[in-house]
Structures are given as C-alpha cells and as structure tokens.
Amino acid sequence: MRCERCGKELTNRIIKINGITYCENCARIMGYDRFLRDPSDIMGNPFAPLDEIASTLMQMSELDFGNSTLTCPKCGMTLREFENEGRVGCIECYNTFNDNIVREMFKQQGNSEYAGRLPGQTAATDAETKAVLQAPKPVKKTAVKAKTEEVKAETESKEEEKPVSAPEEKTEKSGLTVDKLMKADLGMLSDEDLEKGIKIAAEAEEYRLASKLRDELKGRKEGENNG
Amino acid sequence: MAEWYEEKGRDNDVVLSTKACIVRNIKGYNFMPRLDDKECQSLMNTIDGAVDKDIFAGGQASELDKDTAIRLIRLQVLGREGSQMAGAERKAFYYNDDASLSIAVGSGEHITVRAQAAGHDISVYKAAEKTVTDLESKLDIAYSDKYGFLTSNVRLAGTGLKILYTVALPAISKTEGGIAALTQRVGQYEWTIYPFAERGELADSNVYIIASVNTLGVTEDEVLKRGEMLIADVIKAERACREEIATSKKDQSEDIYGRSYGTLRYCAQVSRSEAIQALGWLRLYHDYYDAGDIKCSWNAINKLTMNVLWEPGVPLKKNSPSALTTSQKIRADGIRRTLKSEE
Q: 56-115 in B: which are within 8 Å (CB) of A?
C-alpha cells in the first residue's frame, strides 16, 4: 500500500483520514498531528476527546464534501462519477479532476510522471526473448536402456562442465549456510540470523526453507506485538 | 486461420503465452463511456480508415458471424464469455492471419492493440508497437507531456502498456505457501499475479496471469526488462518445485501422471475442472517420466490446456444438464483426438 499524497510505500504506520491513506510524514504536513498522537496523550487532558471529535467532524465536512459537485465542462462527468468508476470521460477531465487523478495515480503506481516514448516514435529497448539458461529443463528418464545411459553420460558430462553461474552455497560471516539452516532448530536462531537466512535461502532458490524461516520470524514478531 | 498458440514457444513447460497490450485514444472524441452513438460511428470509421487492410481482416463486431466470434474466442482475441460482443454496434475487431496481432476498437478504450505469442516471447512488444506507431502516424492521438498517452481508465494513462505472461504453475500451487511466496516476489517487481478465471468462476486451473502494473514513472524498456527478470525467476521456481515433488514423491507422482494421461486419452466425457486437473499433473511430471507408452509433447499439453481454458460458451450452458453432457462429450472427443494424433 502507498501513501496517496506522496506515493511512498507505507511501512510502519498507516493513517487513514476521510478515506485517504497517508504516511506519517504527509499526515504531519497536512496538519493531522492529532491522529499521530499516542492514545495515552489524551489522558492528560479530560476534554481532549470532545475537542478531537468536534475538530475531526469539521475537517471531514471541509474535505469530503467540498468538491463533490465538480463537473467536467466538456463531457459533464462529475467528480463523484470518476471516483466511483475510476474512469474519466474526456481529455478535459484530466484538467478538471487533476488533483484527484494525480492522487489515484500515486495510489496505484507511486508515480504520476510520464517516462515513456513520444507518439510515433519507437521505444529504445533491447529486450529479446532469451531462454532461461540458469535453469535447464530436467532430462527425461527414458525406458530405453541405451538411451538412458546416453542421457546419463551426457548429463554427467554437463555437470562436470557446470557453468560458472551455477548457484554456489553462500556462507555468511555468521557461518550460516543453506545446509545448516535446513538442519537448524529454528527456535535457536536469532531474529537477525533468520533475516539473513531468508536471504540466503531465497538466493539459493530454496523457497520452502525461506518461507519456513519467514513464518518463524513473522510468528515471533506477532508474538511480540500481542505480548 | 492458423492457431498462434500451436507454435512451439520457449520455456513452454511453464509459460503458455506472452501478450503485449497497448491502448490509445483519439483526440477530438470523448472517451468510450461518454461517447454517443453518432460520435462512436464516426470514431469507428476514422479508425477503420487507418487500419492496414493488407495485414488485418475483420471490422464492425455486429457484422462478425457466430463461427468467427467463436474462433476469435479460441484465439484469445475475445474473452471466453464473449462479453466483448455486448454492444457490438459500438465495437470493431481486426486481426491478422493467425490472430497473433489484433486491434479492438471500443473495448474500454478507443483502440487496444494486442500482440500474442506462444511460450516466453517478449518480441510481442515490438509487434504491438509497430502496429501502434503506424496508427499514431495516421491518427491524432490523445497525448500530454505530463501524463503521456491519455486513457479513460486512469490506471492505464502513461505508456498504456501491459505485458502479460500466462503461466502454468502446478508445482508451485501444490507447494505449501508457494503461491504466497511467489505473490510477494512478483510484488517486489511492482507487477501483479492473479489466477486465470473469468467472472464467477472457480480459479482451479493452476494457471496464472503475471501482469505489469506501472504505466507511469517507467519507460517501456524498463517494463520489459523487469518482466524478463521476473519471468525468469518464476520459471526457475516452478521447475525447482517440480523437481522437488517429482523426486520426493516419485511413486505417487508416477501413478497420478499415468492415471491423468489415461483419463484424458480414453475418457468419453470429461468436465472442465477434471480436464484441467489432469493436464496439471501431466505438466508437472512430464519431464521426469517416460515409460515409453505415454506419447505426448509439450505442444500437445499446451494446446489442450489452451483449448480447455479458452473453451467458448461453456459457462453459459451449464444450467442445462443435457447441454452439459454434450459439452463434456465434445471436450473429451477433442482431447482424445489430440492425444491420439501424438501416438
């Protein structure tokens, strides 16, 4: 999920105000500091909750209903229709609903700047179809014995000439390897080791191991939050 | 009309097809939702005049006969439900000989150019781009320096480009947490993955679409390169999972593989979901076992998968028991004939 104002990926805190999602920084800039406060802050002021409610209601009426009647002068599309359908009616709508369109673009893509080619020009690209060389298809086991041996010999010779790019087992400074991780009691590993382990396992394409480690780490973090 | 998906594509054990879709709109006309019938007719005439008739056949959707419409569904120019044929007076479809290249008019945006190829083949982008640049040179296209190519759906504004890989992932689907891990990986590339299913249908096929998301803030080249890196990862992961299942559950896999082939080769009636499941097992274990009596190429598996997945009209008939039986018989007959031709 992204902040609908600046487009940055949301990490720790998600602040939703009038249906719009903000990151912590944008919420501050927009003057929504009170939404960032720890609930315990309110305890110091007995009238704070009433102030908060009144102020929020005022903000909502200003923000939510202010532009709802905005209409495109060319095609007659209203802002409400655009928000409901996600589609605009004509080129002029891009000017009329500019702010809302930019917000929608940020929400979806984290960007609203065009970087592509110009009309009539071709894109500079060198992408071509390439076979996935890193992962050769497995050699089929055949019932014909001679063929089996032939294939086996071929496979063995290929193994001998293993390309340099073949994945090698990485050893971290901590001494972690895929093999060690597979045998390890996950409960004995630190959070840091689990994080490193996920990277090592993913690089070695041991996705099962990576997901096991991830689940262990996730479980611990959830445990901490609940506790 | 030949069938583009019967071509032998690269990495076709995993990637069924690669597609590039580019959308454009024409200046001076409202976008489709706000275009009245008179303007729409004028738009269709304008575009018809710009389409290269040496390459493309077709025309107004209301003039397409039923057989052509069914053929276009099979060739994936139209969706399986044929829902694009609704409001046919306001739409047009143009397609080349093998329907690997097509132009849809009035389907969401004024123009949707689609290039498709069997297997893993990113050259589809260049094919789509060539058609689009030709249209751009003949038509006044809606474009702004700030947002790029303007579209009715603001999520497409910018390059208006979507790259889609259709992938069969029986092994990742059967691996615990496999799809969740893959979804995370796909998200890291800012792409998306979703199961192949039409509206109201159960996503039970192990076939997924991996599609690009961003049309702003990225060049076409970046989209293509990211897609190529991502699909290489997906292919590697699926093959690794197949290897794992085939070796760790060898006897079980061999048994299901043989049974699946038997079901498909000799069935008299077969439901869509049963055929899809059997094809999934055939795909999963195909490279690991050959007792000599199962004759089936990757092309045949892919052709059958595509035929079953893009079977026109079946969901519309499912309420009638006799129609259901008939469609199951027709499906079984088609599968049997394809497998027999492999022997």
A: none
